[in-house]
Design brief:
The protein has 1085 residues and is α/β, with parallel strands linked by helices. Helix content is 43%, strand content 13%. The protein folds into six domains: 216 residues, TIM Barrel; 185 residues, glyoxalase-related enzyme like fold (2-Layer Sandwich), CATH 3.30.1900; 71 residues, Arc Repressor Mutant, subunit A; 112 residues, no CATH class; 106 residues, no CATH class; 141 residues, OB fold (Dihydrolipoamide Acetyltransferase, E2P) (Beta Barrel). The protein has 46 helices and 23 strands. α20 packs across α33. The N and C termini lie far apart (72 Å).
Length: 1085
């Protein structure tokens, strides 16, 4: 018999369904179910995933949705045709607009207004008066499209309930149909479903009660079992297929139409595009297009005409043109940089006359997919571009894609542990030991945390957390992926308001949009563009020079010399540990070297074993041999090594006779071969094609295996070139204007790899004078101040460095001092009218010291003397004589000042950096007594020497391509040290690696040229040494860089939850402490 399960809930009914669409469809196919009706709650967020599962299994998908109305009525609705689907998406959009983020408010009147063309199935509770009223309404609105669901609840009188509902449905002429209200694909998921129910209700498994399912029957069952369960209602069972036959709509019917706002009046899209191309060409080529570029442009325009992509190019062009008109730096990247058309229109910056581009990497006829252009904008001004898009294309035609926030190891353990009632300290201990998670957590790791791996509830936590990993938690907002349409966007997909004001998002993410071949424009944010824009402004204002990305001196020898020394902290793309280690080996001297540098430190070239051959050939240690001139033409620039995706494609085209489209399909199949296995058919064509063209079978096999090894992570040359442009510009500014670079980088935070502490420290090492935050001299941003008549400038830290200080309060202070500087705390308070909370924040940041010579405690004491509200001006004038100020009338108190170490800790706590001594400098005598040398001494040691050093932990990285090796950067007063931790040591000392603020390392120096690493043999946690630094029992707040994968989203524990370190020595001295001060306006507790 045939049977369709029409009430299936996937895990896109967040924290309700316990299985993915793929799991459900795979199981349904094995069970012989004919079709699946996916009805997630008030949402179509998972319907495209269901479509892909349907495509993969060949099972029919019935598109549907469960509507939970405000009055408690629940209804399954299925669009029968394309117009009905649009009515459903508009209905959900209406509910989301009322309910806001993650909520949907709908009423029966709304269903009535949008029900045409839909099948409606009532999900009843009890056969009572309420059910009768609902059936009456359903029959009236849906007519012969009205059904009622019969579903077992495994409770007493279940059969009587079904009998009464069936009779009641017959009375109102509503047909019955069987569903199983499926929440998971197989019975083993019952426990996970209980857990997500607990998470949803914010309770534990012991207290959840009847909120959880009362039985384990909510899994897929074969048709034979469904017939056995419902022997009295064969017609209701058969109606499942009746509904499938009536619902002819498929998501494949959705067609995307490009917007037309950017079209020139009187011209079609293609003519408009060609108009702009020829109009903009003289800007790029004042002396005329070179013949080869002209040929390329005509080829691209012909392909764009064939694929009907002109509206897309026009849309992106209009966005970029607007940004440039507003002085917003922007640059296209990715595969779009392969396009000469994009270059001429100003979308990208890679000149096709000087770079060997491959347009088929961007657009190909065989691929038949919309192009994808990523454009980066200044991250602080991108919102201007986004709001212009909404204004131009209107909110009903423009929305951002969603992102699916999924469970990772740490979050899964937290939520599952809480649901199972584990103590909070156990949950913290488990999550703090998590870096990443493979198939299982070794028992020894559990025992290291002083936990019992045999504990039943603990073992269940780990098991269920493993199952929960990867499941969607909720929808988020894509950084900038816009979907723009010609007609109403909510005809295609439901739209909901975003958390951020004046934004809205669709329910599908970028993968869903790509699966349906919709156009997406990526309006992305790039912090380095903001930094560059601010740097150019500072150079103009303070140095009187006019500089921008297009006028920066190219191929500057001093800049490349700095890059070769790996002196690239804070710059773009080449600032990470891995990049810095590669720079002295690759030794970039030209722009193309920089392109290679950006691309080579990627998983692809590493996994494809291309890095070392390239470096050996570059250093002349290995000969470069090309079997044929054709191969030399393709791989000559990369010394015979296919480092880029375009290289792989050109090898296939030139050596094996692939067309451009086939080569792009090869690239795509390599990118997914681990999942689809589709690369094998290309292997035969590539190998046979190369053999046919005169290459040996052995060489052809080797070529293919090399391409296969890096295809999954290959970096497009065009993308690397786009990034290299910005990388070079940032290094040029750092080399020639280090003061400007420091100020601009601080003014662009948060961004980049390093924290302000490391940025300022690096600037000081480059001879830049950095001055502290000052109430009389600082502005919101960091600024440049002339150093006498030397022509040099110092960097004055801005109020933005003061943690917690509002921009509005800083603006009041700057405005109030325009005519004369402040004379006292009271003077600031009265003239600026800022709240005392703001003054406290400035005092904690020591901003009163530079000009008013008030130490932290003196400033805080003066703030304590202030009244609740400033007096009226006339009363204040009467009270004060001349420059007399209120706090001078307070009794003088000789406050004991903080120690130097305490001041350093307060600096880090309230500004994130210090201009005083490095924290480790205060511990140097004690460290030396333990034979611990400085980081600088360790990094200058000879190769093979055993050393013992220590420092603050700045960055921890564990790249997926490094086979479990962890890289750590520590720092002391002499500079940073690079540490390598092998997987075996990491597993033994996991708690030290993940929990230390300060770490000691005993190991051997490994030196290869200018690249120096300390290979750790022993690791020790010295976090306790930092406790005494502040003369108080609190943890030192670690100035970790943003690149620290452990503290910044790499799967490690939340630093706020880290247990306090063991205190090996208590250096507390009884003293007057700022924590003991009482201020009316601020609680210092």
């Amino acid at each position: 018999m045939s049977y369709a399960e029409l009430q299936v809930t996937t895990h896109f009914s967040f924290l309700r369904g316990a299985s993915s669409a793929q799991e459900l469809f795979d199981t349904a196919k094995l069970l012989g179910i004919s079709a699946i009706g996916v009805v997630d709650r008030n949402s179509l967020a998972g319907i495209v995933r269901a479509l892909e599962a349907s495509r993969a299994t060949g099972l029919r998908l019935v598109v549907g949705c469960r509507l939970d109305l405000a009055d408690g009525m629940s209804l399954l609705v299925y669009p029968m045709d394309r117009p009905a689907y649009s009515r459903l998406t508009r209905l959900i959009t209406l509910g989301k607009s009322r309910g806001g983020k993650n909520n949907c408010i709908l009423h029966w009147d709304d269903v009535m207004a949008y029900s045409e063309g839909m099948i409606g199935i009532l999900v009843p509770d009890l056969p009572d008066a309420t059910c009768a009223a609902q059936l009456r309404k359903l029959a009236h609105v849906f007519g012969d499209r009205a059904y009622v669901s019969l579903c077992l609840r495994r409770r007493p009188n279940d059969q009587m309930r079904l009998h009464e509902i069936s009779n009641m449905a017959a009375r109102f002429r509503v047909k019955t149909v069987f569903t199983n209200d499926v929440l998971f694909h197989e019975p083993g998921r019952r426990q996970l479903q209980d857990i997500v129910t607990c998470i949803r209700h914010n309770t534990t498994i012991d207290d959840v009660g009847f909120e959880r399912e009362r039985h384990a029957d909510r899994y897929l069952k074969p048709p034979e079992e469904m017939a056995r369960l419902f022997p009295r209602y064969p017609e209701a069972l058969a109606r499942s297929m009746e509904i499938v036959r009536r619902c002819k709509f498929s998501l494949e019917e959705l067609t995307y139409q490009y917007p037309e706002e950017a079209i020139v009046p009187g011209k079609d899209a293609q003519a408009s595009l060609e108009h702009y191309v020829w109009e903009c060409a003289p800007d790029r080529y004042p002396e005329g297009l070179p013949p080869d570029v002209l040929k390329t442009v005509r080829h691209e325009l012909d392909l764009i005409r064939t694929m009907k992509y002109a509206p897309y190019f026009l849309t992106v062009f209009s966005i970029v043109r607007f940004a440039r008109s507003q002085g917003i730096l922007c640059q296209g990247r990715g595969s779009a940089a392969n396009s000469a058309v994009c270059y001429i229109l100003g979308i990208t910056s890679i000149d096709p006359s000087t770079n060997d581009l491959l347009f088929e990497r961007f657009v190909s006829q065989e691929r038949d997919e919309p192009p994808d252009i990523d454009v980066d904008f200044e991250h602080e001004r991108r919102e201007e571009v986004i709001q212009w898009i909404y204004k131009t294309y209107r909110h009903d035609k423009a929305a951002l894609c969603a992102t699916v926030t999924r469970y990772r190891a740490k979050g899964a353990i937290r939520d599952v542990g809480k649901a199972l009632g584990l103590p909070e300290d156990v949950i913290k201990a488990l999550s703090s030991g998590m870096w990443s998670w493979s198939e299982e957590v070794p028992d020894r790791n559990i025992r290291e945390l002083n936990l019992n791996p045999d504990d039943r509830r603990l073992a269940l936590t780990l098991k269920l957390a493993q199952q929960l990993m990867g499941a969607p938690r909720h929808l988020g907002q894509h950084p900038g992926g816009f979907v723009l349409t010609h007609d109403r966007l909510d005809d295609l997909v439901p739209i909901e308001p975003a958390t951020m004001k004046d934004r809205q998002i669709i329910e599908w993410d970028k993968d869903d949009v790509e699966a349906l071949k919709f156009m997406k424009v990526d309006v992305l944010a790039l912090g380095m563009l903001t930094c560059m824009a601010k740097a150019f402004h500072l150079i103009r204002e303070d140095k009187g020079e006019d500089l921008d990305l297009s006028t920066i001196q190219q191929e500057d020898a001093a800049t490349y010399a700095m890059i070769r020394k790996a002196d690239t902290l804070g710059t773009f793309q080449i600032e990470s540990r891995a990049q810095m280690a590669m720079l002295p080996r690759l030794k970039p001297r030209t722009f193309y070297d920089l392109v290679v540098q950006v691309a080579i430190v990627r998983p692809g070239p590493i996994q494809g074993d291309m890095v070392h051959p390239y470096l050996r050939r570059r250093e002349g240690k290995e000969p470069v041999e090309y079997p044929t001139p054709e191969l030399e033409a393709v791989l000559g620039k990369t010394l015979g090594v296919p480092l880029f995706q375009e290289s792989a494609m050109r090898v296939a085209m030139v050596c094996a006779g692939f067309t451009g489209g086939e080569a792009d399909q090869l690239r795509k199949s390599m990118a997914t071969f681990k999942f689809t296995g589709g690369v094998s058919r290309f292997k035969e064509k590539l190998v046979s094609g190369m053999v046919k063209n005169g290459y040996s079978a052995e060489f052809a096999e080797k070529t293919f295996s090399q391409l296969e090894g890096f295809g999954s992570y290959g970096f497009p040359e065009s993308h690397a070139a786009s990034f290299a442009l910005i990388a070079y510009a940032s290094n040029y500014i750092k080399c020639h204007y280090p003061d400007v670079f420091c100020a601009a980088l601080l003014n662009s935070q948060p961004m980049g790899f390093y924290a302000p502490a490391q940025i300022v420290g690096d600037a000081i090492k480059h001879g830049v004078e950095v001055r502290p935050v000052c109430v009389n001299r600082s502005r919101w941003d960091c600024t440049l101040e002339k150093i006498g008549s030397t022509g040099r400038h110092a960097v004055r830290l801005g109020f933005r460095q003061v943690k917690g200080l509002a921009v509005a309060d800083a603006a009041r202070i700057v405005t109030a001092r325009m005519n004369s500087p402040f004379l006292s705390v009271d003077d600031i308070w009265r003239r600026s009218s800022v709240p005392t909370e703001a003054l406290v924040q400035l005092a904690e940041a020591d901003a009163f010291l530079p000009s008013l010579e008030l130490e932290r405690r003196d400033a805080l004491w003066a703030i304590k003397a202030l009244r609740d509200e400033p007096l009226p001006l006339f009363a204040a004038a009467t009270e004060r004589e001349m420059a007399a100020i209120a706090e001078q009338q307070e009794p003088e108190v000789a406050l004991r000042q903080m120690t130097d170490g305490h001041n350093v800790i307060e600096d880090y706590s309230h500004t994130g950096l210090t201009l005083r001594q490095h924290p480790v400098a205060f511990l140097r005598r004690d460290l030396s007594a333990r034979n611990i040398i400085s980081c600088g001494e360790a990094m200058n040691a000879r190769d093979g020497r055993w050393v013992y050093t220590a420092g603050l932990v700045l960055v921890r990285q564990k790249p997926g391509s490094a086979k479990g090796v962890m890289f750590i950067t520590i720092e002391d007063e002499t500079g940073p040290a690079n540490i390598v931790v092998w997987p075996s040591l990491f597993e033994k000392r996991r708690r030290v690696v993940l929990g230390s603020s300060m770490m000691a390392i005993n190991g051997r120096i490994q030196r290869e040229g200018e690249v120096v690493h300390l290979v750790a043999q022993q690791l020790f946690d010295l976090s306790g040494d930092l406790v005494g630094l502040a003369d108080r029992d609190v943890e030192f707040r670690l100035p970790t860089g943003r690149g620290d994968e452990f503290a910044h989203g790499g799967g490690g524990p939340d630093s706020r939850d880290r247990p306090r370190p063991v205190v090996p020595r208590d250096m507390f001295t009884p003293d007057l402490h700022i924590d003991t001060l009482k201020v009316k306006s601020r609680n210092f507790q």
